[in-house]
Amino acid sequence: SSNKKLQDSASEFWGSLLSLNEDDKPFVNLGYFPSYSILMGAILNYGYLHDAPSTKTCTSEIAVADTSDGGPPQNITAWLRVVSACCKIRKMHAVFSPSEAEDVLVIVISLFLDRRLEGLLLILGDCLNSLISYFNTSEWESSCLIVAESISKRGQDGS
Per its UniProt entry, which superkingdom is the organism in (predicted)? Predict the structure, then answer.
């Protein structure tokens, strides 16, 4: 939605629905969770250029130009909040496979490196921490290498 209040309300709604109580139990029993493909579709609609080299921006000019104040589009904040919430419920429901979580982590790192999104460093940092915490120890050992290689290749493609 282009309505900021609606975006904020929707991301707060999903965040509260997907949060866990002190016993790591959901507050609400859900039959539906956003999927990897839904979240990827949303980030692509935002304007993320999945295969862009590092010398090119990871976001399209149109998506950033559409904001009224010249800052980052508000919908990316909602996307980051929902991804963070999805990561925090892994004990209850794994929204991502390890390889899907790797893809999302590469996207968040790429967004972190986009200078036009500097105003979102706190929410990006929270999402990054949630994604890293999503992996168990054995998954992280291989996944961090895969993510590092992917980021490295992205940088080499632009040189």
Answer: Eukaryota
CA distance 85 to 139: 20
Question: What range defines the domain where residue 138 resides?
Answer: 4-157
Kindly state the tokens that stand for 90.
């892994």
Write out pLDDT tens, residues 38-90. 999 888 887 776 655 443 445 544 344 444 555 556 678 888 988 998 888 78
- Give how many domains the chain has, as a whole number: 1
Rounded to 10 degrees, the C-alpha dihedral 120/87/40/79 comes to: -30
Report the alpha-carbon distance of residue 30 to residue 64 in Å, rounded: 34
Torsion, Cα of 127, 112, 150, 81 (10° steps): 20
Q: What is the pLDDT of residues 116-157, one digit of tens each?
A: 888 889 999 999 999 999 999 999 999 999 999 998 887 665
No. of H helices and E strands in the chain? Answer: 7, 0
Question: For the chain, first and last CA: distance in Å?
Answer: 36
Distance from CA of residue 64 to its chain's centroid? 17
